[in-house]
Amino acid sequence: MIYISSQLRNDEETENILAFVENNVNGNVGIEIFPLCHADGYMEHLDKFTPWLRDIQISFHEPYYNADHSKEPGSPEYLATMEYCKRVFEYASVLEAKYVVCHLNNSEISDREDMIAHSLRNISETAELARSFGLRILIENAGIPQLNNVLFGQDEFIGLFRSLDHDCLLDVGHANCSGWETKTVVRGLADRIMSYHLHNNYGTSDEHNGIFDGNFDMEFFFDCYTEYTPSADIVLEYRPELLQAGIGWLAWDIAYVQDKTLACSAEKERTGLAKFCAQ
Asked: What pTM did the predictor assign?
């Protein structure tokens, strides 16, 4: 499944995205909602579009602004984060969202050991809260070195999932800025990656460009995708300004991704048939 990430910031943006999804992609593309819980009236704005959002495939990102799972339990930041998550999970359950993507931290690294301990404790509580609404979470690799907010490096992130009872989403833009090795990460998390955030950059800033605007090697990525995670979702996570400038060009990027994932499905079917015939 392919999703378009959008904040759905206002009526015009929401109507444009809904019209694009409904009229151009024949049910093959959904929306990943990136909620702005800190904004007054935002949840009421979403609620107004519930009848239309119910008719398409939905995933969610958890709240990002003014939210952080690496803060000490009981702190104002922790309490605000959990309250935002509760609001989002409640609404996501109404839309029967496939999953909710979560970060282990959002802030600059200070006391790393304390932040790791808090984040792992708090994400467990968050997962329990999600389950109470019939939802599952995916844990995303968050942060970039340029902002000093990478709590887990490449090998540490892979190692997390030897003990965590959660699946993950790999953000290739964050990985590119951090210098992660695509094949190493995809292969190392092959049985845990359920989805990807796909966007591009030039390795120095989390620009959230279109998939062809940057130095991340998309062709090599899809080689790894085909080999190790052929069933994973793809979320096009572009910065809001790109969508605001007009979304018609999204059809080109979606066609490219569909071509790659359909080819992957065909290869999987061919390989499966060959294995069956060899038995």
From this structure: 0.93
